[in-house]
Amino acid sequence: MLPIDTSLIKMLTDHYWIKRDFIVQKRSFKGRTFFDKFERIDSPLTQAIINDHKERKIIAAHSLINKFDKVENIVFDYNGRNTERFWHRAQLLLREEGFINFTAYESKTPGHLHLYVHKGHTTLQEGYQIAKMLSMKLNQRLPREWRMFPNPDLPREFNILALPYNLYQKERGASWSKHM
Questions:
Q1: Rg for the chain, CA atoms, rounded
Q2: Which pTM was predicted?
Q3: Residue 169 and residue 105: Cα distance in Å, rounded?
Q4: Which residues in 20-36 are b (16+ Cβ under 10 Å) and which e?
Q5: 168: helix, coil or strand?
Q6: What confidence score (pLDDT) does residue 10 get?
């Protein structure tokens, strides 16, 4: 993945997370117990770390929520079987809802995607509402095979995503939008 590809995400680079082979911490949240295998590293996410991740030496992740409770992206974590159908339906929905900047990346498992909807500085509560609304609208057309981030049902430390491996498709303010 080239540096230009990761710049489309606008991810937080002041810290990152590394997956460990052991449980780093046990957390209780809303009556549920979570076992955390990702350790937070409080140093900048550099291109060297991204390259190690791409070469599969480590599994690195980035946070979706910054220290000011703002989110830059609403993310679909698609784990289904029909990637093309999901991408087609999702891009039609996003265009219809007025989102013109979004990018899909391949994750570690073949056929699974992370679809980043670039929203800009959005409050955390608004991010939760947008994620829920987009998920419900897409659920009317497709069987639910994705998770949405940010997710209010997860602790803040679990609103992270592994760095993507390859670019799948992107949409950047297409020329059709001026005719809408």
A1: 16
A2: 0.88
A3: 7
A4: eeeebeeeeeeeeeeeb
A5: strand
A6: 81
Q: Please report the pLDDT score of residue 153 as a whole number.
A: 92
- Would you state the structure tokens that stand for residue 12, as one six-digit string? 């937080």
**CA–CA distance, 176 with 180 (Å, rounded to integer):** 7
3-state DSSP assignment of residue 94: helix
Q: What pLDDT is recorded for position 180?
A: 43
Q: Residue ranges of the chain with pLDDT lower than 50?
A: 1, 175-180
Domain 3-179 has CATH 3.40.50.2300: no
Per-residue H/E/C for 51-73 = HHHHCCCCCEEEECECCCCEEEE
C-alpha dist (Å) from residue 166 to 98, 109, 114, 128 = 26, 11, 10, 26
Interhelix angle 124-139/83-96, nearest 10 degrees: 120
Q: Helix %, strand %, coil % for the chain, to 5?
A: 30, 35, 35
User: In this predicted structure, what is the pLDDT of residue 176?
Assistant: 47
